[in-house]
Amino acid sequence: MSYGEWKSPITLDVVTSDKSVEISNAVLDSESGMLFWRAKKSSGQFVICTGEDEESAVDWTPPEYSVVSRVHEYGGGSYFVADGELFFVNKIDQRIYRQTAPDAKPVAVTEDFGDGKLRYACGHVNKFLDRIIIVREDHRVEGQECVNTIVAIDVKTGEQTVLCEGADFYKGVQTFEDKLVFISWNHPNMPWDVTQLNVGDLIKDSEGKVQVENVKCLQTDASILQPTLLTKDVCFYLSDKHDYWNVWKSGVDNKAWYESKKETGWPYGWIFGSPGYGMLDSGLVIGAKDDLVLVDLENPQTVKKDLGEIIRKQGYKFGTFANILCHKNFVYAMGLDDSAHTNTLLRVSVDSEEVFLYNKSSAPESLKPYISFPDPICFPTSTEGSSAYGYLYKPTNPDYKPDASSRPPLLVRVHGGPTGMTSRSLNMNNQYFTSRGFAVFDVDYRGSTGYGRSYRRALYGNWGVYDIEDAISAAKYLVDQDIVSKDQLAIDGGSAGGYTTMAMMVFRDYFHVGLSYYGVSDLLQLAKFTHKFESRYLDQMIGKLPEDEELYKDRSPLYHAEKLTGAIGFFQGSDDFICPPAQSRELYEAALKNEIPTFYVEYAGEAHGFKKAESIQRCLSNEIYLYSKMFGFKLADDTKDPPPIHNLPAKQE
After folding, report:
1. How confident is the model over 283-313, as pLDDT tens digits?
2. CA distance 258 to 301
3. What's the 3-state SS for 75-102?
4. How far is CA 549 from CA 100, 457, 523, 533, in A?
5. Can you name the residues that pair with 172 across neighbouring β-strands?
6. Cys-Cys with 191: which of 51, 234, 269, 582 at CB 3.0–4.6 Å?
7. Residue 577 has what pLDDT?
């Protein structure tokens, strides 16, 4: 049976089942040591849980709430705990709610300004002042850019006082008694470009009002993230001054406190939360790519215990550790990048070396023979002497033995960002394709995060160039190695990856079919109308406006739609404010006009990144349906609500 026609037990329901969705965003109650985590249900609701493991977890979040912050649109840092009580941001109204127990009704702490006009993230309760200290994003003035500040909120009355203002953005807000530390930055920088580390004194006056005095900058010559106060006078933080995000210490300017050729933590500035290191009495625990180590506070180059190796000896192969939390002699972390497991919340005892997993993160035993494991690939790019990276998933299905002379179709997948990164973690979306006979290649083109600042900054001025060239170079490499078919090449991607997909199908005649998930067709419109967080992102990636307007047009697929050659499909969310529907619709209409095989599906209620199981299932089913029509194979499964493919040649219908 031909590649693409294989029957697979990795069904649409398996891909979107609760068991295939990892838990994430763990938080510890510093007093009790109680562990909280956020989980996504198949309905798209995000809930907060506690418990001994995933199966016995107690769900705190009532059905009418969903724990999601919309600060920067990407959110993160959507909840925090204090003395066993939960404080969370609700998706619909973006208000902060307080909940005293799993069965208690959440009580609003902040006012309702309607339609989420005040948004919050990265908060905690400062007991010294009896205030919530948190980042606030104010959208109350229509027609103007939102205003980001750090505020203090009275836990009892909800009264708010602005502590820090004037910068375009804030994050990394931490306190130690009456000392405040935070990160700020201004346009056109993104948090992975250049940020500023600040400290100040928290003062409560005779009337109980809280304010900040004596604010000063500690560092501002690199991307500085995730500050933590060890004492009032000692601050740790991450900096990429020496190419990789490593742990630095205040007062030591010329070298990292713990130097490594690996990035510490994850996801490097996109969202709030997920600390890359944590504090024990016995030392600092640092999570990085392939590392989870306990280092001595007095002699940081001395590794007291290699916790990552302890975990690997017990059969787990996590390639990255993030969301590091510490309590007593236990270390909690998210284990990432294990090809046999989804992202996994784990606990390791420094004393006994016992490892415990909170979520059953591997595929069911019956599916394990169908799982394709990634091979890391380093391949040459079109620039002499330059290489790029990615992960190859080969077709895997024990029920079929392909013809030795045939080669599988290739699906190149392009991550978002554009300065994002791919992951080796078990991804049932990829397995859906590989178990049906596709080869899948996740490309980390030049500009991707995870390989140091120099590699990431290679994309400066080159978005729409290197991402396209490296996707082609990856496919050519696999074709030249006789791994995949040269006649069945597909590409897909979401957001910035959707842009690369659209641009590929317009500017380069190499891939035969593309599928864009909520992508960008008009870079000028993106720069002019996107949300505040990314409104100057393209200054670095392409150029400054208005002087570089022609360059934006040169790289925008929509302005060159007449060059569109290969088949292309579009998936879009109706509520996407990052890449609005018009970005996809306009190129879809151009494809119709050009008589290019195409379809367009818009999902009501979905935003930037689909959450509902029904939407995800339909996307996968429709995507492989398009490939079957273009590559001429017959699917083993029925297609879920197949869209009409316009301009499809009669012989392919």
Report:
1. 999 998 888 999 999 888 889 999 999 998 9
2. 6
3. CECCEEEECCEEEEEECCCCCEEEECCC
4. 53, 22, 9, 21
5. none
6. 269
7. 80
- As given in the structure block, the two tokens for residue 105 are 């009704």
C-alpha–C-alpha distance, residues 89 and 585, integer Å: 33
Q: Tokens standing for 468?
A: 């396209």
**Contact (CB, 8 A) for 629 and 647:** no
Residue percentage of the chain with pLDDT more than 90: 73
Q: What distance in Å separates the CA atoms of residue 7 and residue 572, rounded to the nearest whole number?
A: 28
Question: Would you tell me how many other CB atoms lie within 10 Å of the CB of residue 280?
Answer: 17
95-100 LR contacts (CB < 8 Å, sep 24+) = 96/120, 96/123, 96/132, 96/134, 96/153, 97/65, 98/155, 99/60
Q: Are 306 and 293 in contact (CB under 8 A)?
A: yes
- Three-class DSSP category at 470: helix
Cis check for the bond before 546: say yes or no (omega within 30 of 0).
Answer: yes
Residue type, 65: Y
In this predicted structure, the answer to whether residue 18 has a pLDDT above a threshold of 60 is no
Strands 24-28 and 344-349 come out as: unpaired
Which residues sit opposite 494 in a β-bridge? 517
Instruction: Give yes or no for residue 143 having a pLDDT over 90.
Output: no
Report phi then psi at 375, rounded to 5: -105, 120
Q: Cβ neighbours of residue 312 under 8 Å, at least 6 residues apart?
A: 318
> Residue 362's closest CA among 388, 335, 384?
335
Provide the total of helices (H) and of strands (E) in the chain, helices listed first.
Answer: 11, 35
Supply φ then ψ for residue 418, to 5 degrees: -80, -10
Contact 393, 372 (CB under 8 A): yes
- Using a 10 angstrom Cβ sphere, with 0-12 exposed, 13-18 middle and 19 or more buried, the burial of residue 65 is buried
Region 159-167 average pLDDT:
96
Q: What percent helix, strand, coil does the chain show, rounded to 5? A: 20, 35, 50
- pLDDT for 466 equals 97
Q: Distance between CA 475 and CA 579 in Å, rounded? A: 27
CB within 8 A of 309, min separation 6: which ones? Answer: none
Quick one: tokens of 451? Answer: 């390989």
Q: Which residue type occupies 39? A: A
Token output for 334: 């998210």
User: How is residue 239 written in tokens?
Assistant: 């900096």
From the list 202, 216, 108, the residue with the least C-alpha distance to 161 is 202
Rounded Cα gap, residues 451 and 390, in angstroms: 12
Instruction: For residue 249, report the phi and psi dihedrals to the nearest 5 degrees.
Output: -130, 135
DSSP 521: S
Distance CA 490, CA 514 (A): 6
3-class state of residue 116 by DSSP: coil
* Chain length of the chain: 653
Q: Coil, strand or helix: which one is 172? A: strand
As given in the structure block, the two tokens for residue 598 are: 């195409």
pTM: 0.90
Ramachandran sector of residue 80 (left: φ over 0; alpha: ψ -120 to 50; beta: rest): beta
- Residue 133's Cα: distance from chain center in Å? 25
Paired sense of beta strands 410-414 and 439-444, if any: parallel
